[in-house]
Amino acid sequence: MAEYARGVLARLTDLGRDLKPGSWRPGPVYAMEIAKPARPVAGDGTMRPLRDPARDDADDDG
Question: Could you tell me which residues belong to the region Disordered (predicted)?
Answer without folding.
Answer: 37-62
